[in-house]
Amino acid sequence: MILYLGKRLLLLGFTLLGLMTIMFVITNVAPGDPAKLMAGPNATRDMVETIRHEYGLDRPLVQQYFVYVGGLLRGDLGRSIVSTHPVSAELLRYFPATIELVFVAMGLGILVGVPFGMLSATHKDGWIDHVVRIFSVSGVALPAFWFGLLLQLFFAVRLEWLPVSGRLGITTLPPEPITQLLLLDSLLRGQWETFGEALRHVILPALVLSFPCLASILRVNRAEMLEVLQSDYITGARANGIAPLRIVAVHALKNAMLPTLSIIGLRFGWMLGSTVLVETVFDWPGIGLYAVSSALSSDFKPVMGVTLAIGLCFMLANFVVDLAYSWLDPRLRQP
Amino acid sequence: MTAALREARASADGPAGWRERHAGAIRQWRLYVHLFSRSFSSMLGLLLVVLFLLLALFGPWLAPHPEDALGAVKLSQRLQPPSWGYPFGTDEMGNDILSRVIIGTRTSLWIGLLVTGVGAGIGVPLGIVAGYVGGRWREAIMRITDVFLSVPALALALAIVASLGPGIDHCVLALAVVWWPGYVRLIESKTLSLREELYVEAARAVGARTRRILFHHILPNCVSPLIVKASMDMGMAILAAASLGFIGLGAKPPHPEWGAMISVARTYMPDWWWYALFPGLAIYLTVLGFNLFGDGLRDILDPRSRGR
Amino acid sequence: MSALLAIRDYRLDFATFDGAYKVLDGIDLDVAEAETLGIVGETGCGKSVLAKSVMGLLPSPPAMPLSGCIEFEGRDLLRLKPREWQAIRGVKIAMIFQDPMTFLNPVFSIGQQLGDAIAAQQRAKPAGERLDKAGIRRHAENMLALVRLPDAETLLDRYPHQLSGGMRQRVLIAMALSGTPRLLIADEPTTALDVTIQAQVLALIDDLVRRLKLAVIMISHDLGAVAAICRRIAVMYAGTIVEDAPADAILQRPRHPYTQGLLAALPSMAGNQGALQGIPGSIPNLLAPPAGCRFHPRCGLASERCRSEKPLLRELAPMHRVACHHAV
Q1: Which CATH architecture describes the domain C5-267+276-293+310-322?
Q2: How many other CB atoms are there within 10 angstroms of residue C226's CB atom?
Q3: Number of domains observed in the structure of chain B
Q4: B258-289 tens-digit pLDDT
Q5: Which of A83, A261, B188, C202 is the most buried (most CB within 10 A)?
Q6: Interval A96-114: pLDDT, tens
Q7: Chains that touch C (3 or more CB pairs under 8 A)
C-alpha cells in the first residue's frame, strides 16, 4: 500500500514538473518581449535592458529553465508588476477565499446531487425524475457568468434577499483568523451573526459554481443507480428480507458511487477553472479574480502562479479520488 | 460465367445497383434516423443546432440592422428596452442587440469549429499512434497528454491568452492547445481495444500494410465516439470562448462576440438588464443544442456508454 | 395435514412491447412441511419465474399475475403488501440463486452482507428477543460453521472476489438459512459450479434439510441433481406442470410423454446405446402458445382432443399426477 502511494506521489511530482515546463514554454514562446512585458508600458529602453539583465532574461533558454524550476521548487513565483509584492505571498492571501467557495460549491453538488440522483432512479419516470433530467442536461450548458449575473439581478437587486458581492458586508469586521475560512472562523469564534452574513454572501457564488457539477453528479448517479438496481446481488438482498431503504441507500449506492466519484474529480477541476468567472462576477477576492485582474493588466507572473496552483490542486484532488476509489472498491486493493 | 451470374452482375451496376450494393448501410442509416427522431431531446438539440447554423451562415441577411454589428453609433437610441423595432433592445451605442447577437453567432460557431477541428486534427493522429504503436511512443505521448490534462481547461487557456495578448486568434489557439489532449485519450483507448480485435489480427497475419490497417480498420471504427465527442465539444468550446470573451481577453470591441457583449453589459446592470440577458441566452441555447445533439448521437451510436 | 405452500391455478403473463407472453398457465402444486420437491424442465419453461413469484421478486409491470393464489401457511402471498413481505422473506421463505458470484455484492465483506441479512431477519422478532451486534457476529460464525466453511472468523472479513465458487454458494446458503426459514427455494444452485463441487453442495443441502426439517423446492434442468435430494419431482413444460410424482416413480415409471422423452434423452453409462434420442421440435413461442395441450405439436400420442382441450392433472396412481389425455 505504501509502495502504491509512493509511486503515485512520484508520478504526481513528474506531472507537476511537466506543468512547470509547459508554463515556461508559454512564457517564452509567446511573441513579445518578456522583459518589455515586465517593465510595463511606460518603460524606457534602458529600463527594459536593466530588467532583462536583472532577471536573467539574456541568458540561454536552457539555463533560464533551470533557474526557473529551481525558483519554483523554492516557492519563488516571481513578483507582480502591479502590486510589486511576491506572487507566492499574494497567492496565500487570496487562496482561502477560493478554497472556501469551492468547498461550499462541492458540498452543495454532492449533498444535493447524490440523494436526488438516487431518488430519480428509484422513482423513474416520476415527476422528480423528469425535473432531475431536465436540470442535469441544462446545468452543464449554462454559462456560469451569465447565470451569476441573472441570480444577482433577481435575488440581490429585485428581491434584496441576498447581497450582491463580496465575502462580507463592508461594515462587518471579519473574525480573528484561524483557518482564514470565514465560515469556519466565525463558527469557531462563536460569532453567529458574522457567520450568518458570511453564509449569505457565499450562497449565490457557490450556487453558480456548483451548477455544472450538480448537473453532472445528478446525471451519473441516476444512470449508475438505475444500472446497479438491476443487478443480481440486489435481487439477492431483497430475497434475504433486507429493507428496501437499506438496499438502495447502502447496498446499491456504494456500487453506484464508483463512477460518480470519478465524475466528482473531473468536475472539481472544471470548478477550479470556473472560479475565474464566478469570482469576477461576484467580486469574490480569491485567486480567480487575482488571475483575471492580473491578466487584464498584462501582469503575467501572477497568472502563471495561479495556473500552477490550480494545477496542483487538481492533481491532489485526483490523487484523493484514486485513494477513495481503492478504499471503496475492495477489488482494486492490492491483495 | 453463367447467364444468372451475368444478370446479377449487371443489376449491381448503375444507379439501381448502387442501392443494392449499399443496402446494408442504407438500412443502418434508416435505423439511426428512426431511433434519433424518437427522442424529444435529441430532436430539440438538432433543431437548435440547425437554427444556429443557419444564423451563422445567413446572419448578415437575417439581421434587421446589420450595420449595427460593426458598431454604428446611434446615440439617440441608446439603451432602449425590448420593443417591436428592437426585439432585444439596444446597447450603449444605440446598436440593435438582436442584430449583434445574430452576427455574433458566426463568430462563436466559427471558433467552436476551429477549436474542435484543430483539437481533433492533432489529437486523433497522436491517439492512433499511441494506441497502435505502443511502447516508448505511447509512453511519451500519454505522459505529455496527462500533463496537459492536469490543469483545468479554462485556467490553462487563460494563462496562454494572458501571455499572448487578447484577441480572437489567440483565444482559438489557446483553446485548441487545451482541447487536443482529450482526443488523444479517447482515440488511444479505442485504438488499443481495436488492435486486439480478431479482424485486425487477421489482417496483420495476412500481411496487410500498417497504413491499410489504420485507414481501413482502425480509423472507421473510431468515427462514432469521435463524432459524439466532437459535437459535445463544439458546445463546450463555444462556452469556453465566450468565457474568455467575458473576462475581456477575447474579441475587441466593437466586434459582436457574445461573451464580450455580456462583459460590457455587466456595467449596465441592473437597470438595463436586457443587454446581458439575450447574448447569454444565445450562448446557453447554442451549448444546450450541441449537448443534446451529441447525447442523441451517443444514444444511437453507442448506447452502452450512457450517463458519462 | 394442510400443505405448507399451496399454489392453485396460478396464471402469469409478461407484458412486453411485442405482446403478452403467457409464461405460466395454471400451476397447481403443493409442498408439505419438511418435504423436498424438485422442479425440472428445460430453459424457458417458467421454473425460475414460478420461484420468484413465490418470493414476490417479480417486478409488477411487466409481470402480470392473472388468476390463482399462492398460499403459504394459509396466507395468500399474492395479496401481501410490500411491508408484509419483510416478515416472510428470509424469515419464513428463503431463496438461493444460480450464480454465486453475481449474487454477492462485490464491495461489501462477507461479514457485512451476512450480518445485514441476519439483522434484517431479527427485525421480524419482538424487540426484546433481538440479537445485538456481538450476537449477530456469533450467529454469522455459527452459520458459516453450519455450511462447513472453515475458519469462520477470517472468512467474515473477506470479500466475494477472494472466495471460490463453491465457497460463495455456501455463503449464500448460510445467508438464506440464517433466519431458520421453513421453506428454502433453490434456483439452479449447482449449475454454475464444477461437478465435484456440485456433489459437495448437494450433499450439504441434503444434510441441512434433514437436520433443520426444512422444506425445499429445488429447481434445475439437471434431473440427476434433483434426484439426489428430492423425494418428489414435478416436471414443467412451457408454463404448465405435466407430471408430479415421487422421485422413484418419475425415474422408473414416467407416464407423461414429455417426461418419457426427457429420460430417454439421458445418455446411459451402460455400454453402446446407439444414437442419442432427442424430442423433436422446439419449445413453443409463449406469445402464441398452442391451443389445448401445449406439448401436442411435439407429442407422438397427440390426438384431436389434445389440440383443443387442455389436459388437467389427474391422479393416475397414489401421489402420481399426470396432465395428459393419453397417459396410462
Answers
A1: 3-Layer(aba) Sandwich (3.40)
A2: 24
A3: 1
A4: 998 898 888 887 777 888 888 999 999 999 99
A5: B188
A6: 889 999 999 999 999 999 9
A7: A
